[in-house]
Each structure stands twice: as structure tokens, then as C-alpha cells.
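User: Good morning. I'm curious how adenosine-5'-diphosphate would be positioned relative to this chain. Could you predict the structure with it bound?
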Amino acid sequence: MKILVLNSGSSSLKYQLIDAHTEEVVAKGLAECIGVAQRCGQIVAETKLAGKIAFETEMNNHDEAMDRVFALLTDPEKGAVKRIDEIAAVGHRVVHGGEKFVQPTLITDEVLAEVEKVSQLAPLHNPPNLAGIRACMRLMPGIPQVAVFDTAFHATIPDCAFIYALPYDYYTAFGVRRYGFHGTSHQYVAGIALDMLAKQGIAPEASRIVTCHLGNGCSMTAISGGRAVDTSMGLTPTEGLVMGTRSGDLDPAILVYLARRLDAPASDIDRIINKESGLLGVSGLSSDMRDIEDAASKGHARAALALEVFCYRIRKYVGAYAAAMGGLDAIVFTAGIGENSPVVRERACRHLGFLGVELDEAKNASERGRAVDIATASSRVRVLLIPTNEERMIARETMRVIAESAAPSPLLMAP
Ligand code: ADP
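Assistant: Good morning! Here's the predicted structure, ligand included:
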């Protein structure tokens, strides 16, 4: 039994076919430049049987991209599935679930209509997610489709942390509140962190951890007793940490000031804070942390500044979340930067000794690719490096939903 996990973005479609029991990835791939007029579409795919293949193919929309992916997966000779019913379900990453979807959800026509309504909150993200779902419903009729929302893990955040101090009517009328994103990743690494802490005698119910997902997009979540209580992204993914090209936290009046100075419409301001800011904006060089670290080490002043602003913001959030939770047992680093950059981890933890954070420099420098504690033995706060795996989490949640939906209703069970 296999679960197909799909992540469809605006011009790309990523997939993994995961064995439901062993959690082994039996096929995976990426279709890129979907519907991009200037460039031909490209597919890179990998299966155990056929190895890696890459080819160009025209893909005008997600329907056509999914046709290609489906043909690859079910190819009679080299495909990863011989019969379509080997795929038990498809799990879809859906970015925004609004307040309506606080759990992974079996997709029905009604659910699709509701997700469509929520698209107002995520006009760039939800429509391609929906296109991927529709393409799968067409190609695999009868196979359960499950939506796993990036926002869902944050549904436990209390109102004092999710309400913005704006006129309250904007919350009730337009849904303006903190939702948070990267929930699947925060949930996955938090699960592993709780197991690691339990082995050291810290019970999950009593644990207070901060998870740092540091990739191209970056966010942090405060997790108390295993439940999210605050997170750094907000109504949109722009709030919070410094990211590759997003500014993160700003004085909101800057937006008004810039609009006036530049005589710019809202769409320009949106582009500036989402595509031209962050590491790229401060350094003037690159949005990629590897380039920033490299240039900073060679004396590039603005790259060094970008690195410092990035790490300082993380450190401030650790302090804020420790205060929010009344203490701290572990900091978790994950995603591209969190898993691979000893420099960022060291700087983010600098000056946190007063909280009981002591990084083991040798472990921080040498560890990579596995879940490991990189704090000193005497550190009161554990510092954990945990590789994330959003696809595995989506596959697990998808399995859970189909198992629950198949379970006989208690009302129908024999007395
Ligand atoms: P996405 O959010 O697109 O999934 P990733 O989680 O893959 O992104 O993270 C991408 C980021 O990770 C980039 O900024 C990249 O530079 C950074 N990164 C990857 N490897 C390293 C490394 N060895 N050192 C520092 N940064 C790294």
C-alpha cells in the first residue's frame, strides 16, 4: 500500500510515492516551469526501478503536469505502481486552511468549495494546491484524496497570540489574524524532539520547546506540552524571521511611508517585502545562505550584516517564546539552513547562556543529517538538530485520515 504525496506550487509540482508501512520513498520527482511561457517544462523523476530521468516536456497547466507524472508512475515497464489501486490515497499539501480546517481533511466537493473560499487569504498558494487536487481526482477517481494544511498545527494558538491589535471587526469580517505556516514541518520535528526529551526524563505534557524551521522561508513555533502556542508567521508567510527574500517583522507604518515615497501601488509594496527583501535585500547579493556565509567570510560587509540580522532575529524570538511559555527545555533547528549551517546555529544561540543554552561547539560543527542533541552535557536547555520530512508527515496524516474515515461509526457498532 502506497501513499502519493503531492505539493503543487504556482509553477511546480513535487511528488513522492511513499510505502505506507516502511515509509520508504519508492518514487519521487519534480515538474517545473508549468505554464511558464518563456521556458519549456522540465521533469526530473526518480524510481528504484528506472533510476533518475530528466526530460523537457510542454506543460501548460497543472492538469498536463499531473498527466505526465501519472504516466511516469504507472508506466507498465518502469513505473512504480503496477495497478492504480496500489495507491491507497493521495495526500495534498494545502497551504492555507483558514480557521475552518484545523485537521487534515478527506476531500469532498464541499471541502473543495470551502478551501476555495479560504483562497482569498492565500491567493498565490491555494489555487495551485487546488489545481493539483482536481487533477488527481480526475486521474484517480475513487482513490481518497486528503488535504493536509500548513496552518493546521497552529490551530491551538490562543487568541492572545493570534489577535492583532487592529480594530476587532477586521478579524471577524476579513479573517485578519495570525495563522502561521510550515505547520507540517514544526509538527514533525516536534514529535521527534518530544521523544528525545522523554528519554531525558522530560514528559511531553511538561515540555516547552521552540522549533526553528530555517529554509528559504523561515518560521519559529513555541510548543508547550506538545501543542503550538505561538508562531512567527502571521496572516501570511511574510511576518517573523528574516528569510531569503522576505523581510519578516517590520514597523507596519514603513509600508505606508514607502508607498508614499515611491508613489507605489500595493502590488509593488507586496513585491518589495516578499521578493526583494530578507537576505537578498540586506546583502544586495543573494537570497541563498550559502552565498551569504561565503561572502561574509571573505569580508563582504553587507553579507555579514545580513547574516547578523538573520541570526539576531532568531535569538530574539527564542527569548520571546521562552517568556511566553515560562521556560525552555529545547531549541530545535531544521530545514536547509537549520540542518546545515553551524554558523547560524552558533550565532542564534549566542548570549542565550542566561536561559541555560550551551552549545557543544564540536558537535555543532560536525553533526549533519540525523536527529542529534548538539548541546553540552551540562546545558539546561537541549539544542536539537532534527532533519525535517514534510512528505513523510503528510503521508502519515493521510493514512490516519483514511483509517479513521474507514473505521465503523460507534453508532453502527454492535452493542
Ligand atoms: P525550501 O524552503 O525551499 O524547502 P530549504 O529547506 O531547502 O528550502 O533551504 C534552503 C536554504 O538552505 C538556502 O538558503 C540554502 O542556502 C540553505 N542551505 C543549504 N545547505 C546549506 C549549507 N551547507 N550551509 C548553509 N546554508 C545551507
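The longest strand covers residues 25-32. The radius of gyration is 22 Å.
Let me know if you'd like a different ligand tried.
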